[in-house]
Amino acid sequence: MLEIIKKNWFVVLIAILLCGFAIYYVWDTTKDFVKGKSVDGQDIIASIDDYDLSADELYDEMSRFSLSQLYYRFRNAVIEQSVTEETDEMKEAAQQLKENLEAQAQTNSSSSADELIASMLNNVGLEDDELDRFCMLAQKESVLQQNYVKEHYDDLMADVESPRILSIIELSVSDVDSLSEDESASMDTIDAALADGTAFADVASEYTQSTISDENGFYGYIDEDTASSTTFTEEMLSAALSLEEGETSEWIHVNSDSGDKVVLIHADVAGKDSLQASEDDNVWSSLASALISRNSTLSSEILFDAADKLEITFTDENMEARLRRFAGLDA
Which among 24, 137, 166, 247 counts the fewest CB atoms within 10 Å? Predict the structure, then answer.
């Protein structure tokens, strides 16, 4: 029996969740049998100062919370069943995420780190001690989203005209309008390395001071609809979109409230065909993130597409509809 449950744990999970909804249904159908204080025709179960909490309000809140928990447990199961492989790269990224989350939690003075992390985990359908699982779920969800974008690339990119994957080198300067000798010398050194044929990523790994790219200068995806920001200015955006694949911009002088800097931008990939042909996971991850940030329901569409491929059968059609509404897919 144990082996059967192990092999079919996803089906068992759905069955348990269905049972949970049945329990709430029974509670809902009997909640009016006990009568007490009533205000405006509504049964009051608690009063605090001048505030009365009605049974209907409590039930609505419990229903919302239970649906949230159901959705995230459903989501977690779909992701883990859809992406079963855990590569060394995924494990390394998950460990880095874990370390980052623990470090961030330690900086909060209002609650203990363990309490903050436990609360975060509970909110997404996980137990207090499942931080490792949470971090691996993040990696698996990224793979799931990348695979979906690859599969539906033509449709998702139909209206895009100028996609680019960028890397950047940034140097902080004290005054962009009056560079010091040392600052100018650093720029000359970088120019010489690139002129000698050193790969942009290698030069970036040694010299860049950017806070918006990785250690090798990788920045990620932009296109003509990308909005400028204080860290990636309109001038930087314009220069990036003018680059052909493999080209590097001239030094861009940026004067901003966040600090002066000089920037080189390199087009790693340019054009829809080249982008689609890329085998770099970082490229696809960046593209998927950009598309999801612009489409509020895309991540949910990806999740339910994966659920369909798992051939999940909902014995309660109302529950599937509730999950879809919670995910923002249906009105």
Answer: 247
